[in-house]
Give the backbone structure.
Amino acid sequence: MDKRKAYATFLLGKTYIGHLFSRLAVWKRGQGYTAFKEKYLADNFFELTPEERISFPDFQKCINCGICIPSCLFSVDLFNDELPDPENYACSLSRPLPDLWTSIDNIYRCTLCGACETICPQGVPVTEIVRFVRRKIGQIAPELVPYKEVMTNKEKGLNIFGERPAPFVYTKRPKPAHLLYMGCLYSSKERDAGQRIVSLLDNAKLDFTIMDEGCCGRPMDTDGDISDNNLNKLLDANIRTVITPCAQCYGHLKEKANGNFTILHITEFLSDANFKIKTKSKVSYYDPCVLYIKHDIYDAPRQLLKASGERFIDINHDKSLLCCGAGSGVGVLYPEMAGAVSKERLKPFKEAGTEVLLTECSYCLQNLRRGVSTNDNMKVYSLSEYLYMNM
């Protein structure tokens, strides 16, 4: 045996014997793993939950085909020099786990609309990858999360703007059968629209109540957990049907209901109750991505608009071309970017001669209004708000 082999054998034996003695010295079960985690903490290693371990193989399915790229208006048409496309997210963020925090510059600019997922031949869950990365950034480098103040507001039971808005005006019922869950935007920044929605149901003598809400937990979409305060209030109210006009709240509550209560988006409720919109204006409807892509709510709002006859200009939406630009906190964190997407989404409606554009998502409502200029012959309203205005 030459000297190099002998020296290598010596080192191997030394390491093996040292390992045996170190194992004998570790008398508490799990202490070795704890030491490992502590040693590599600075390298941003982290644990995967059992659920994440199950999901992770799906995260790695991207084959770089590029089919998803045209679906993302942010990365393709408007900000192609600044933001990665969905393929980039799927490939670069699903593999080098310790380096996920380096995506901080763009990971919070994804609206999680899911348009890329509708055309992915591999079924790569891009939105789940982005949520996963955001969760881990919150664990690894919480100081980098761009909306710490918002999360603090949520923990205090306030809305995302740090407010506790005044109650809406409506007729109190002694034993309400429904709970109307308004959401942060309708209770604050889109307050006038919110009050009209409340008044619509109040005038229709719906037996409902509105609780003191904080944030539902969805807008910033870091961990997907509903606020315990709101969940407990819903359970304590012992009301089995919750109606909400906010598409974000609807999606989040739907995921967390666990059979404890029925969640209806307000368009579903109004359609089943045979409400109709009658108007002299040329109206169109903008499908929120959360409702159409995630929950297949497409027919209900159109059922409400049938009474307007030829005045209704139905621009059928491709699921891969829905995002208004404001979802998942982008409208709050990056309003200029969200507004640029909004202007692009409004073009086909302007070309069709739409005078009144309706939607039923508070984020779409705010952002589409952001994209309308003073020279445009178009108004944007919540569908249920507009129904109240034309009763």
Q: What stands out?
A: The chain has 19 helices and seven strands. The CA atoms of residues 343 and 371 lie 5 Å apart. The mean pLDDT is 82.
